[in-house]
Specification:
The structure is a homodimer of 433-residue chains.
Chain A: E1 4-10, H1 14-25, H2 27-34, E2 37-44, E3 61-62, H3 65-69, E4 76-79, H4 85-96, E5 100-103, H5 106-122, E6 127-128, H6 139-146, E7 152-158, H7 161-173, H8 177-186, H9 195-198, H10 201-215, E8 225-226, H11 234-243, E9 245-256, E10 259-270, E11 282-289, E12 293-300, H12 304-324, E13 339-340, E14 347-357, H13 362-372, E15 377-385, E16 390-397, E17 400-401, H14 402-413, E18 418-428
Parallel strand pairs in A: 1-2, 1-4, 2-3, 4-5, 5-6, 8-10, 10-13, 10-18
Antiparallel strand pairs in A: 7-9, 7-11, 9-10, 11-12, 14-16, 14-17, 14-18, 15-16
Helix pairs in contact in A: 1-12, 4-5, 5-10, 7-8, 13-14
Chain lengths: 433, 433
């Protein structure tokens, strides 16, 4: 074993700069743990002349990927360039050159994780990607190692900081979705084009990765049903609050009897739920195991240094494996087979808000309609609006199958007395009222 | 590699029974991960005839430790018997016979962890003890692996479920310490003799273990200053609540510049702190790292199956190491040297409640006294009691050194106008008021 291990970086953006800083600042701790130094030797960048947030010798930089991928001195490749196709090509090349890879690329891992894992195993290389889910939170290790003996039944995550920041602002400051988004953009918590975040796509990628590891089953990105927070109305947060719930964008995955349900959707969460206290840009993943019960892993979901922590901790693991001569042994379990759960087997509670004519008998008509679908109500709020001509009705159902709920909704919309079904959301947990 | 790995158990109490059940119930998942079965072969018990909470063949049980420790078929010993001296002897014998050990014994690990680790390494054996801290929460892995690249600055833990249950009940139901304790005993959350829990000793053991791993420094149990929650008064929780704080028994450890501060004490925690939402018998450990910032690990701190999850996950790790031929390589870092922080370097905010004569100028005398010690106030509450003859004064200080605070307290108690300094507590975080 040489006195140093040499790392090559693909990409030097916000996260790549964090990796450089962390390796430099924590050299003493790394050396103590590993018995050798860790050195960054080459860094692939798009533009040599761009000004950067980190001190780095100019001759380390290159625009030619082969300078990194084919350098025989480099043992570990850290991929922090983002994007899918190019990054995938480079990683596959790295494996062919028998280099280990640590990636922070959720898009890539969500789409091609199993294929990359296979290539790594085939070449006796390590492939780790802790930073691809929930930034600095060591959640993949938590699931794969910490809860290895348990059968995980359910994973729920607040895995997108932008949307959690927006929802927290709407909740605590009473501002509209549009204003909260604008503020998030000004503070750098949301990008100029926030589509991937607010439409739930970013969260869906992380849930696909979490689902695979939690349930040892193949989860494809298209298995994840997605609905985002775009245009969510303050009124629903406020009624939720009144009834004991907080609105969160929740990634939800459960697996039993080889049947998988996986989705991302705005959800009214009972305030007593551990995830309800997760505020602003923070992330958290709640894991329910058969034996362990409720656990939760909380921390920063993004950011230069937090994300770098996850990456460099993966590098530490790879170097330990190198020293022990056990790289390429990730014990990827034989996969369990999987079916997607049909809507008659997906159970949840729902919140519904609607406007109806404020007439005698309207509520009992609605109630009877739901009763016919085997759905009963848990909480009801009714308020007259517009001088008593219109009633705003809010209710929360008991557990129902999605199939029954969808049928009830359809019938509800066709009722004469119902003017508009304004919104409906999934509800998790029991509010103490 | 044989087709099964054989485990011997020392002890068959609540946790031991959980281990038996978990290995049985999750055999399929274990076999999928390990490529072999896991079998419990012998179990050391004190009494062969005791009725038990788990189905187990009678001829697996023995009262002779050598039947477990000297059985050549047994690869891994799980120590769940508790106690210190006997357990230590057995574990040392196990290492001598080249058996790996997984222990849930916080008392033992807190007192003799480093010695046991040395014996393990010397014999090329594994020694894991995830279950000794915070039951089912994989916090030791979180620190050792997940945050391996970071420099951990601070660890704060709610690591005793009994006291957290009592404080939660006092807070939410407004009951006295005595009644909350009685209820906890009736529900099985507190033992008939609750001393070790309510006086903070149990939490201190866990903090010693956490401190060692988080800071790579030798922490002895006697380094941990302890004060418990025994006789804590409801009034202080209520005033705390009014000012935006929640009372928790917090294990606190910080390390900088080779100086360690480590203690367990009731603390008023700002409600916005992630640990403030940890209720009832749940545990959580908050870790602040130089690069990652705030993280928190939450889950059940005790219980048969949750604790068994941590133990069997350790067994899984040991078996993976056996298969890879890398046991006895725990990369225990060279230790950093340590000094205990003196009181002039320990900074905190404090809450003080006192009774004083309700006279003109009393408050300004008190305020001047603190000002002379360089301590200023952040919040003040003053209420007349006993028909205006007595004033109850509550204040929260800004950050001060412990040395200055102790001097101020001493002077405060000698003031003529001060009738009684009723209580004082450390304060963590900033309440939003």
């Amino acid at each position: 074993m040489s006195e140093k291990v040499t790392v090559g970086l693909l990409g030097l953006g916000v996260v790549g700069s964090g990796v450089i800083k962390l390796i430099e600042n924590h050299q003493q701790k790394l050396a103590h743990q590993l018995g050798c130094n860790v050195q960054v030797k080459r860094v692939l960048v798009r533009d040599l002349d761009k000004s950067r947030d980190v001190d780095i010798e100019e001759d380390l930089l290159t625009t030619n990927p082969d300078d990194v991928l084919n350098d025989p001195d480099i043992d570990v490749i850290v991929e922090v360039m983002g994007g899918v196709n190019e990054a995938k090509d480079y990683i596959l090349k790295a494996f062919t050159s028998k280099k280990h890879v640590v990636s922070a690329n959720k898009d890539l891992v969500a789409l091609h994780g199993p294929e990359l894992q296979d290539a790594a195993t085939h070449n006796k290389c390590d492939f780790y990607y802790e930073a691809s889910v929930a930034g600095g939170i060591p959640i993949l290790r938590g699931i794969v190692d910490g809860l290895s003996s348990d059968r995980i039944q359910k994973v729920m995550g607040i895995v997108n900081g932008t949307t959690n920041y927006i929802l927290t602002q709407m909740d605590s400051e009473g501002v509209s979705y549009e204003n909260a988004l604008k503020e998030a953009q000004e503070l750098g918590f949301a990008e100029a084009d926030p589509t991937s975040d607010v439409e739930g796509l970013d969260a869906a990628r992380k849930m696909a990765i979490l689902g695979r590891l939690a349930f040892s089953t193949p989860v494809d990105l298209e298995d994840v049903e997605v609905s985002g927070i775009k245009g969510i109305e303050l009124e629903d947060l406020q009624y939720g609050d009144q009834l004991g719930y907080t609105m969160k964008l929740i990634g939800y995955a459960n697996f039993d009897n080889h049947e998988l349900e996986i989705n991302v959707q705005p959800t009214l969460l009972a305030k007593s739920h551990p995830l309800a206290a997760v505020k602003n840009e923070f992330n958290a993943v709640y894991v329910y195991g058969d034996a362990v019960g409720e656990t939760m892993f909380y921390g920063p979901g993004a950011g230069s240094l937090p994300t770098a922590t996850a990456i460099v901790s993966d590098v530490v693991t790879v170097i330990k494996n190198m020293r022990l001569g056990v790289t390429g042994n990730q014990f990827v379990e034989p996969h369990f087979k999987k079916e997607l759960k049909t809507s008659d087997k997906r159970y949840a509670q729902y919140y519904v808000r609607l406007f109806a004519k404020d007439e005698a008998g309207v509520f009992s008509t609605i109630s009877a309609l739901f009763h016919d679908q085997d759905i009963s109500f848990k909480r009801i709020l009714q308020t007259p609006v517009n001088k008593g001509e219109v009633a705003e009705i809010i209710f929360i159902t008991h557990q129902t199958s999605l199939e029954n709920f969808q049928q009830a909704l359809e019938k509800l919309e066709s009722l004469d007395a119902v003017l508009e079904v304004k919104s409906y959301y999934k509800v998790e947990g029991d509010a103490i009222s």
